């Protein structure tokens, strides 16, 4: 990302990916490093990952639920796989290399990101605004713009 450190909570783990609940605005295809801290051990486990998808939550629902992002693991140390083995038991083999993602996830990670200008108008009056977003599709730009401005707005047009 931009070299900054952000917080989040890992809610789902597997040998090939993670779901991190966070408010970080990462884009699909972006490479990130996740440092997972386990138990009392002060040393984090560094995991290199790529953002595959994100869950955006509307502003009025953020007190109930947070967004997050699905990450595909690109590199992880042996300690991560040992941790997984401890979760599922000794009899289950864990490959040391991340598995290939399902086809729909692989396709999503290779989607080109385009900059869109979204023109919006307030339903109840003359107010309008234009928001510039980087998204994978015009539909995604439309959804993100409406989530950013909140209720009471309509999309007039989306231009790349």
Spatial order of the strands forming the largest sheet: 1-2-5-4-3
Number of domains: 2
| Helix segment tally | 3
What percentage of the residues does DSSP assign to strands (E)?
Answer: 35-45%
CATH topology of the largest domain: Thrombin, subunit H
CATH architecture of the largest domain: Beta Barrel
Task: Specify Rg, calculated over alpha carbons.
Answer: 19 Å
- CATH classification, class level of the largest domain: Mainly Beta
Coarse morphology: elongated
Largest sheet: 5 strands, antiparallel
State the helical fraction: 10-25%
User: Structural class of the helix and strand makeup?
Assistant: alpha+beta
Describe the model.
It is a single chain. The chain contains 3 helices and 8 strands. The strands form 2 sheets. It has a 5-stranded antiparallel beta sheet. The protein folds into 2 domains: 9-109, Thrombin, subunit H (Beta Barrel); 114-159, Roll (Ubiquitin-like (UB roll)). It has 160 residues and is α+β, with helices and mostly antiparallel strands. Mean pLDDT is 79; it is low at 97-109. The protein starts with 8 loop residues before the first strand and ends with a strand.
Task: Write the SSE topology.
Elements: E1 9-13, E2 17-21, E3 31-36, E4 45-55, E5 68-75, H1 78-88, H2 103-109, E6 114-122, E7 128-135, H3 138-149, E8 153-159
Antiparallel strand pairs: 1-2, 2-5, 3-4, 4-5, 6-7, 6-8
